[in-house]
Specification:
Layout lengths: L16 E5 L12 H13 L4 E4 L11 H18 L2 E5 L5 H9 L7 E7 L8 H14 L4 E5 L1 H4 L5 H8 L4 E6 L6 H9 L5 E4 L5 H6 L4 E3 L7 H13 L2 H18 L6 H9 L17 H15 L1
Parallel strand pairs: 1-2, 1-8, 2-3, 3-4, 4-5, 5-6, 6-7, 7-8
Length: about 300
């Protein structure tokens, strides 16, 4: 890659709209149900999603072995390439060398536009260490990176100073900003990010205001359900249609709350199974299936949105 002497190398990658971070369905024997992975990917793209995120948090990636992860990528790659849709693959760990290996292994994947790389978790690195982690991964990656900033899960928040330093790196396309609300850190990142750096919402209750303040879309687990409505809400935000977008957001909020009432992705799996779209509602330990009551509440919220 040719580098500019000053500033950031511009990226032609446009991240716009709703990306669905696909669940990993399991069959009655506990194996990955690849046929269901394929069918869901087709359904979400047909509903207006801009792309699919494979091996994200919602995909229970930590519970999959290497062969299963590769199989999921291959199925999602095939669908996205056929449909000319964007594929994003989760490839981050809390080990820089392992993350470099993981992004390198994605080279040549059809349809792949970016790697989603989480802020290193558990080891609680300094901001200097986080920035250097992304610098080295970005230099090695065959595709642009999307930073995944999710302090609730990682124990570390990459604040605006560090985030904007990462945003200035070549081969960094954006961030999935999954913080608790539209906070001042997020507003500073939205205001200060360079051209070509895309802020995608990752906290599903706050997607519309984030887009109205300059975000370009969302990686939205809740969009496993009522996908068309989430797409419509984000499109309203991008077009500045505040009242229409607000109507969508108000209608979807009960569904978002119901979807996260128990550990993700248990409720979404429970609803998808009840809808006949995946063979079981099962998760792999230590996650367990959602309670019947939680699934019923989410199904009721879906009914309200679609009525």
């Amino acid at each position: 890659m040719v580098r500019l002497r000053f500033g950031r190398m511009p990226s032609d990658l446009e991240l716009r709209g709703v990306y669905v971070p696909l669940i990993t369905p399991f069959d009655t024997l506990g194996n990955v149900a690849l046929d269901a992975v394929e069918q869901l990917a087709y359904e979400y793209l047909a509903a207006g999603a801009a792309g699919i995120v494979a091996l994200g948090t919602t995909g229970e990636t930590a519970a999959l072995d290497a062969d299963e992860r590769r199989a999921v990528i291959e199925v999602c790659s095939s669908v996205c390439a056929e449909q000319q849709a964007a594929l994003i693959v989760g490839a981050g760990t809390n080990n820089t060398a392992a993350t470099i290996d993981a992004v390198g292994a994605l080279r040549g994947t059809a349809g792949l536009v970016a790697a989603l790389v989480v802020v290193p978790y558990y080891v609680r690195p300094s901001e200097v260490g986080i920035v250097e982690h992304f610098r080295q991964v970005a230099e090695a990656s065959p595709v642009p990176l999307i930073v995944y900033n999710v302090p609730f899960r990682t124990g570390r928040n990459l604040g605006p100073a560090g985030m904007l330093e990462v945003a200035a790196l070549d081969n960094v396309a954006g961030v999935k900003q999954a913080t608790s609300g539209l906070d001042t850190d997020t507003l500073e990142i939205l205001a200060g990010g360079p051209a070509g750096f895309h802020v995608l919402g990752g906290e599903d209750a706050f997607l519309l205001p984030l887009v109205l303040m300059g975000g370009s879309g969302a990686i939205c687990a809740s969009a496993h359900l009522c996908t068309e409505r989430f797409v419509a809400m984000i499109e309203c935000g991008l077009a500045g249609k505040v009242e229409d977008g607000r109507a969508h957001a108000e209608a979807l909020l009960p569904l978002v709350k119901a979807g996260f009432a128990e550990p993700n992705p248990s409720v979404f799996k429970g609803v998808l199974h009840a809808q006949g779209r995946i063979p079981t509602p099962d998760l792999r330990l230590p996650l367990v299936a959602a309670s019947a009551a939680a699934v019923e509440r989410a199904l009721a919220a879906v009914d309200v949105v679609t009525s």
